């Protein structure tokens, strides 16, 4: 069989005899469904001559079920079938490729190859199935679907490996290789087979693929899942907890593909960033953190540095009014709206001249941490539930994700296009470093939302990153954040002596970060030295200067 992942539509027909017409069987292969992350590796395929499949026939009138083996030829599938052969006038047809060798009690086991580097073992690892009902006088159309999952890895290296070296990588993954399949329905059932090591198939140009059964992501895989060997160097990556859309990555799904873009490099010093503190575009006049006062303490006599908000600094800190859910109209679950509002306030301020020319009439006022007209818009229009930062930004700017009951304002849809996404989403996992993501955001002049995970609670929380410190190796060591849950820091008393400095309202908080042994990044919690908040995702918002230029160019009156 040729390439598996997108189908053509060859149709095979037969001349009908007057007495007992041959059943016309038509087959084609449907494309694999895309998963929740980007999936751009695909190919076209169809059944080739001499391919064989197994066909199960279940009469609708309660007759005896049959199992047939069919072979593809230039003139169609043989042996040819008639309704007389089937002793029925109406039946359900279920087919599988590759053919089924043995079964027990209506179930068979499909096992993928442990080493899929060769094209033959890779192709034969896939399982296609189709089911349809037909009656005498009608053709049997079998639309084959991919029953298993596929993982695609694309490898990049900034300064360690050449593209030729990446093309020689050997990649292995831990997974269960088998699944049980119901012969007449195609339903899948997990097996008790032990987890084993499966080797990826090279597609070329640093892209690798693996076919494997649908299955839940096991807890142990979060500590080590994929092993990559390039020459004599070994890299281990763990299963991510979340995908790019912030949904939890809990399982490999039937008929779907997940693509991971991994960057593999040895440690290298980036002198441009080494030993520097970098702020988001537009932030200014921020005093050196060495002179900041303490916003809080860790319970053990160690102060936590904080900076009180001032309009001239350029960052924003929308806080929830009721982070502990003590009121009936609480906003306790709206961290996504608060962090989105901070980005929007920043964007409006940095683009204020363009915004004025655009005749923007939406909310913009920011009086203080608990008085933001933009955050209030989200409170008024959305329930107190978790939501998606990227979607919230698109809703505000272009109307994307609006519903009939809550159509988005789309305040800048003429500038950015109606219903278009506006954020850049970066998944932070062991294959993509926080340092790299922050450097790229700072270089693009983007403002940054950061999604973290509470330890042991299976809860996500959205905050904002406004600056970062890089160590002498050019790796991020500290981030400067605003947290919409710390409303108490804004309202607390200040100005009195506190741990050798003054107590201050805040605002901006200094938080160390650390790269874990598994390659992921963690932010320090309230206890000094305890790095317990895993950094999951960044949503960044750019200034859109290219779009502004194009928009105003169109607005100029034509020359007379």
- Give the N-to-C terminal Cα separation: 64 Å
The total count of helices amounts to: 11
Low-pLDDT runs: 1-18, 34-44
Number of DSSP strands?
A: 35
Give the overall shape. Answer: elongated
Q: What's the main sheet like?
A: 7 strands, mixed
The percentage helix is 10-25%
Portion of residues in beta strands equals 25-35%
Task: Quote the average pLDDT.
Answer: 85
Cα-atom Rg, whole angstroms? Answer: 29 Å
**Strands of the biggest beta sheet: in what spatial order?**
1-9-8-6-3-4-5
- Class by SSE composition: alpha+beta
Walk me through what this model shows:
The chain has 560 residues and is α+β, with helices and mostly antiparallel strands. It has eleven helices and 35 strands. The strands form eight sheets. Strands 1-9-8-6-3-4-5 form a seven-stranded mixed beta sheet, with no helix packed on it. A six-stranded antiparallel β-barrel has the order 28-29-30-33-34-35. Helix 4 crosses helix 6 (373-381) and helix 4 (335-350) crosses helix 7. The protein is elongated and about 95 Å long. Residues 1-18 and 34-44 have low confidence and may be disordered.
